Amino acid sequence: MTRSSGTEDPIRVAVSTVILTLRRDGALQGPAGPSPRIALPLVRRTRDPYQGSWALPGGWLDAEEGLTAAAARTLGETTGLAPSYLEQLYAFGAVDRSPSRVISVIYWALLREEEAAAAVGSDPENVAWFDAAHLPELAFDHARIIEYALWRLRNKAGYSRVAQGFLPPEFTLADLREAYETILGRKLDPANFRRQVDATRTLVPTNAFRTGSHRPARLYRDAADVELADRGPLSPEETSTAETRTS
Amino acid sequence: MTRSSGTEDPIRVAVSTVILTLRRDGALQGPAGPSPRIALPLVRRTRDPYQGSWALPGGWLDAEEGLTAAAARTLGETTGLAPSYLEQLYAFGAVDRSPSRVISVIYWALLREEEAAAAVGSDPENVAWFDAAHLPELAFDHARIIEYALWRLRNKAGYSRVAQGFLPPEFTLADLREAYETILGRKLDPANFRRQVDATRTLVPTNAFRTGSHRPARLYRDAADVELADRGPLSPEETSTAETRTS
DNA sequence: CCAAAAGTGTTAACCCTACACCCATGG
DNA sequence: CCATGGGTGTAGGGTTAACACTTTTGG
Questions:
Q1: In the structure, what pLDDT confidence band is assigned to residue B26 with cuts at 50, 70 and 90?
Q2: What residues contact residue B156 under an 8 Å CB cut-off, 6+ apart?
Q3: Record: fold of B12-157
Q4: Is B60–A6 a contact, with Cβ atoms under 8 angstroms apart?
Q5: Residues of B in contact with A77 (CB under 8 A)
Q6: Mutate to test the interface with A, among B13, B43, B65 (most CBs of A within 10 A)
Q7: With contact defined as beta carbons under 8 Å apart, do B24 and B116 qualify?
Q8: Residue B218 CA to nucleotide D11 C1', Å?
Q9: pLDDT at position A224, please?
Q10: DSSP for B40-52?
């Protein structure tokens, strides 16, 4: 087996994150509507290559920083928030994906709806939120990356509780159903949805109700001791959920 | 957003592969048996760190080489074979996983049973095949990586046709069932298995039969136009199946 | 009282599983 | 003819999807 020493490699490692949340207001680029839409923040590139284009938030991996920590750091710099869910998506490393040789380890994250609406990162000038269905021209292969992140979200929503990553700690079943409907792109039967979620035993009912329109709806909280979904082969320091649950 | 220039980074990128196949002979380290077992090749490290320990086959990423190409290259160097299935597993990048800073992009691959039995790589001296259930002490975090690869295999066997990656182009339903049983670790009902696989419409029956014991069993071929499983967000040059189907 | 969302009940279709049974071959 | 794996049939249980129905609020 031949191994080059590696010391002369000009290969650099970047970490970027597809940050997803739900938005129902019209404060994002693209057509507004009454039902929520999947939204994500992009940063405008201030240097070549692709100067002026929109790109995923990210940065170079620091020498003394783990991959997940780098994703969480750039996420905080961009939005000022900690995610409710964070998982590695894929490592992209085609030779021609950038003028210089860059390996991009991509993460995807979910933010709670309300927090995201008020969030301000460290450089709000060059950050804007876009409707995931109406994205602008993107730098590098980021358009394909976002497509894959959305596919992963849809897929994982089918067999896990990831959709709760979009919701505040207390929510109604209608909130949760609406999140699923937005992700999956189709309406769900309220009666069957209710039965399916409480068959999983992962929601605990509270004694509070949301009032204001028609019959009040009971608020639920997620069972704190259960992960929203399998996040992959995490190292010990990554398995704690406490850090990602605090804002 | 702060971005270091990255040019002073001592971070290096390695690509390794968890190569899996089925073996029924006793020619591998660990207890032999009549039913096949999952086997994988490991290489003995000839230098520090972990000199003398067993490790996953791999090497440094070349500057002008894509990630998938690097995985296929080291796979060929180790076994002399092209895989029937190759997919990225995960990028491992904890700071303390190696004395120097190394990002390891791990792939997992399936080899056909018969091909693997006769395979000889470019350095057979330092390569040995092990029963996946009885592995030796491994270098770095490779034990955990292999665990995750086996989990991914079991998982993917539940909803895709990956198990066919273990089989030659023509096989009986009993062959296929046995592969699934080995992966999943439990017996499957032959009658129900038959119905489930031909409900997927991905197997084409041939007019040949395998004789030699009891009633002859019909040989099947896989529908060539269907991928064994979703391999992720592949770039155009990676989507061709031709290269991975030839030995 | 009416509209509309919250929540419960019911039923038919579907799928999965277990297992009985017949078929074809080697010994 | 017998043992054994190949292959087919079928009945029961569980899950899903569709939709009728009752409950509770705001207006």
A1: low
A2: B162, B229
A3: Nucleoside Triphosphate Pyrophosphohydrolase (3.90.79)
A4: yes
A5: 1-2
A6: B13
A7: no
A8: 28
A9: 74
A10: EEEEE--SSSSTT
Render pLDDT for A87-119 as a digit per residue (tens, 0 to 9). 999 999 999 999 999 999 999 999 998 777 777
Query: Which chain B residues are closer than 8 Å to A78 by Cβ?
Result: 1
Report residue B245's pLDDT band, with 50, 70 and 90 as the boundaries: very low
Which nucleotide is closest to the Cα of B198 by its C1'?
Answer: D7
Torsional class of B175: left (φ above 0), alpha (ψ -120 to 50), beta (otherwise): alpha
B200, pLDDT greater than 80: yes
Name the residue ranges covered by the structural domains of chain B: 12-157
* Backbone φ, ψ for residue B118 (5° rounding): -100, 0
Contact A90 B3 (CB under 8 A): no
- Contact across the interface for A90 and B232, Cβ inside 8 Å: yes
Task: Give the SS3 label for residue B122.
Answer: coil
Q: How far is A157 from chain B (nearest CA, A)?
A: 16
What separation in angstroms does the CA of B108 have from each of A134, A237, B170, B246? 35, 25, 23, 18
Q: Rounded CA gap, B52 and B55, in Å?
A: 9
CATH code of the region A12-158 = 3.90.79.10
Q: What is the pLDDT of residue A8?
A: 57
Strand D and B205 CB separated by under 7 Å: no
- Residues in B closer than 8 angstroms to A88, CB to CB, are 90-91
Q: What is the mean pLDDT of chain A?
A: 89
Residue A62 to residue B2, Cβ atoms within 8 A: no
Q: Which residues, in sequence order, are bridge partners of residue B205?
A: B220
Give the model's pLDDT for residue A213: 82
Q: Which two tokens stand for residue A17?
A: 């994150």
The top-scoring range by mean pLDDT among A1-10, A66-75, A226-235, B21-30 is A66-75
More confident of the two residues A117 and A151 = A151
- Which residues of B fall within a CB distance of 8 Å from A67? 91-94, 103
Question: What is the distance in angstroms measured between the alpha-carbon CA of B80 and the sugar C1' of D6?
Answer: 36
Nearest one of A108, A116, A110 to A89, comparing CA atoms? A108
Indicate the residue of B1, B4, B105 with minimum beta-carbon distance to A43. B1
